[in-house]
Predict the structure.
Amino acid sequence: MTQSAIVPTTLDLIGNTPLVRLAGPSEAAGCDIFGKCEYANPGSSVKDRAALYMIRDAEARGELKPGGTVIEGTAGNTGIGVALVANALGYKTIIVMPDNQSKEKMDTLRALGAQLVLVPPTKYSNPGHFQHTSRRMAEEIDGAIWAGQFDNVANRRAHIETTAPEIWEQMDGKIDGFTCAVGTGGTLAGVGMGLKERDESVTIALTDPHGAALYEYYANGELKSEGSSVAEGIGQGRITANLEGAPIDTQFRVSDEEGLEWVARLLREEGLCLGLSSGINVAGAVALGKQLGKGARVATILCDTGFRYLSTLYNAEWLAEKELPVFDWLTAQDSD
């Protein structure tokens, strides 16, 4: 996509991210696999897009006024995007996050000036869940709005109006499949809807980590989860408003081990330092590519930077504690 040399505001830095052909995944799939480099957004993740659209939507509806506060419950990346957009527009930010997320995310949110409220991780049915806690806070604070990314369809609209047309243009309309994992559902549903508007034959696939319930829902009509995952920000146990009507044609389930294998390969072989959700997405794209066959062109989302997980994914002790394979270069360093 052609860009002018200068953008008019810092918020115009969100979106228009590069698309890259991934050599290792393409070879493994026997077709072309492309990654949308969402770590190139100002907040280093795909969630900047949803943050911008949700805040602009609240302004347009007259709910968010000058000097107001944006409150959100998030695993971290949406909060970082919200804090940056809010800073640029003159709003305060309060972020409610489960206390089991990476230290880097917590440190980043504090560094951005957000007020960070940590709560124990719990099931959605528990009133102490981070989403419910953040919603109650927004109801109790004057001038505050709750972003509500899971059921706020401005999230999905960000991807219908920006991510999908960018991918379509970057691939010259020659795209056979798209897949990614689901947290809120905004990215998969929005990109899926946007691509289907242009070509109904594009295959849209869910890639679910273990421990999430959507694989079984789209495969067999039942919200049922199996196993668990350490991946942050993905994995869903309900049909959010963003997922309603999502044009999902097929589904894959990917283990943390398989996702980590692609995280390791993309770093070692292609110089991309990514988080586990990106590895899971790439594994799903390879599976979709194999299903579609030789000559297929499949896109996925490289969600965020691996620099956000130095204390977890890129830490030998943490990986060993979680009984996950430790990257060989980390063990080599320990033995020096």
The beta strands are 19-21, 32-37, 69-73, 92-98, 115-119, 144-146, 177-180, 203-209, 250-254, 297-302. The chain has twelve helices and ten strands. The chain has a mean pLDDT of 95. The longest strand covers residues 92-98.
